Protein: Anaerobic ribonucleoside-triphosphate reductase-activating protein
Amino acid sequence: MNYHQYFPVDVINGPGTRATLFVSGCVHQCRGCYNQSTWNPCHGHEFDLQMQDQVLRDLKDTRIKRRGLSLSGGDPLFPANLTAILALVKRVKTECPEKDIWLWSGYRLDELSDAQKAVIAYVDVLVDGKFEQALADPSLQFKGSSNQVIHCLT
Ligand code: SF4
Structure:
């Protein structure tokens, strides 16, 4: 898996102070997508073990307390991302069980494959659905268009 950007401290993408990873790879091609460069799974940098360690270090950092981890993109549930994302969410819930995980995906909860559901089993909040330009509303919190749904899973 490649990633587009990593914010070790973020107060925009989800509640509280968080670490946020924007992965590469997305098939949804939403009109008005805010970052088409993330569609290409080869875009950005490799999310290797060092980066995984970095995310865990940041979540454990007591100087700037993070409430949790946000996973966005691109699409964290893009099929080629699932192995790396599953390893990451498992490790977060093992080493930092008190941290919440939010995940944004263009796939809807009711259309997830078994492999995608295996990731969601470790996720606290899923914000699902494609971005619909006609339903875009900048006043919405944590989502771009009104068709998207915030599912609290835990
Ligand atoms: S799901 Fe997100 S990244 Fe993918 S095309 Fe839609 S808005 Fe862009």
